[in-house]
Structures are given as C-alpha cells and as structure tokens.
Amino acid sequence: MDITFRTYELSDRTDLEEIFLLNTPKYFAPEELGDFLEYLDIFGDDYVVAVVDGRIVGGGGYWIRSSDHQGGLSWAFLRPDFQGTGVGKALAVYRIEQIKASGGAKMILVETSQHSFGFYEKLGFKLLSQQPDYWAPGIDLYSAVLELE
C-alpha cells in the first residue's frame, strides 16, 4: 500500500466531508460537521490529507503553540474500510514528527473519545482526564498527552 501525505487543499473538502459522515455517529456527533468544516477554513494549512493509491482516505490536523511549548493533534479520521490497515498510525506518526521537527513543543496533546483513546495510548499518550458525554451523548472526552524528549 502506497501512503502519501500532503497539505489539505480546498478541492479535498468534499472527500473529507464524506469521510467524516462515514464516521458519524460512532466517532463524531452529526452537529460536529460544521465545526470540522470551519476548522478547515481557518486551519487548513495545518491539516494533512492521507492519500492511498491516488484516493483520499482520511486526514488529521496538528498545531504547535510555541508560547507554552505545546503541540496537538486534531480532527483525525479515516474511511472505515481503511481503519486497522496501518494508515491511521502512519498519519499520526507523520503529524507527531511534524510537531517534533518544529522544535517548539515539549508535549503533544490530543482530545479524543473512548473509541479512539486506545489507539493513541498505543502511541505512548497518557490519559490526563475524561469527561462523560462531552462531545455528545455516549461520546466521552479523553484528554491525553505525549511527552517529547
């Protein structure tokens, strides 16, 4: 499988919206779609699209805030038929490496749900806190951190 990553382009919006909806309501509440599209409008330069064999299969954002030496991962998802194939891990590692390469972060934060926390835990993230029904009924908030060396 040939996986490539590139910066989000406006022409990717429809594909990402479709993939987002394929992950609703298990991973995202339907009302979060507007928040995601607004995120792309504002922070699209820091959103990475995963492409396999010329097809967009998912994406994920990242941020770096040098004022307090924090980085973060946001809005990551894949087409359901690509979950468990290694694409998600490669996408997460790529974004972590982008944050590390900036030299501006000592830790990486992620706010996810109980459905995805185990994935991040395998990458070394440690749970900071959790809050039931935060994103929507049945979708809890799991805040986690990865300390950088």
From TrEMBL:
Keyword Transferase: yes
Pfam families, per the entry: Acetyltransf_1
Domain N-acetyltransferase: 3-149
Keywords annotated in UniProt: Transferase
SUPFAM superfamilies: Acyl-CoA N-acyltransferases (Nat)
Gene3D superfamilies assigned to the protein according to its UniProt record, in alphabetical order: 3.40.630.30
Any one GO molecular-function label of the UniProt entry: acyltransferase activity, transferring groups other than amino-acyl groups
InterPro entries cross-referenced by the UniProt entry: Acyl_CoA_acyltransferase, GNAT_dom
The protein, known as: GNAT family N-acetyltransferase
Lineage: Bacteria, Pseudomonadati, Bacteroidota, Cytophagia, Cytophagales
